[in-house]
Amino acid sequence: MTATFYDRQDTSNPMNGASIGDTKRLLAILRGMSNRPPFFGELLAENGFNLLIGIGKPVGCAQYSNRDGTPPYLMAVSDRSAPDNHYVDFLIGNEPSPVPWRYCLPCSQIEEIAAYFLQTGAPSPVVDWEKI
Asked: How many CB atoms lie within 10 A of CB 6?
């Protein structure tokens, strides 16, 4: 399967609109941008589903949804506990979008989720998903 990558924070990113067909290239792209302030990128798969991913260090996040905007919207859920008022801001269109800590996962898990999505177009079974 292939997916198209979009940087939802930096529209001048040369990777915007890049077609990605292999995991190695996907991981190189994600790792190459992980030194920026946390931001959102998106993978649009050819099967009509999207994976919005928060890219940051040391954590990211992932939301799986249908491209046509219909529910369900699924957020990957962390198994780590944190206070209810703990958030991580991910930038999208130069605006911070606070993501509750319960949806923040280690970068390695975000990479696994993105790789699985690229291969299958489906939400990864390595984490739990919550309807939002």
From this structure: 19
Q: Which two tokens stand for residue 15?
A: 């990777």
Instruction: Name 54's bridge partners.
Output: 40, 61
In this structure, are residues 53 and 2 in contact, taking their beta carbons and an 8 Å threshold?
no
Record the pTM: 0.94
User: Could you tell me which of 60, 56, 41 has the C-alpha nearest to residue 112?
Assistant: 60
Reported confidence tier of residue 83, pLDDT bands at 50, 70, 90: low
Q: How far apart are CA 45 and CA 42, in angstroms?
A: 10
- Token output for 30: 């994600």
Beta bridge partners of 48: none
**Residue 123 dihedral angles phi and psi, to the nearest 5°:** -70, 140
> Closest Cα to residue 27, out of 126, 125, 122, 109?
109
pLDDT at 67 over 70: yes
Asked if residue 81 has pLDDT above 80, the reply is no
Residue type, position 71, single letter: P
Distance (Å, rounded) from C-alpha 16 to C-alpha 73?
Answer: 23
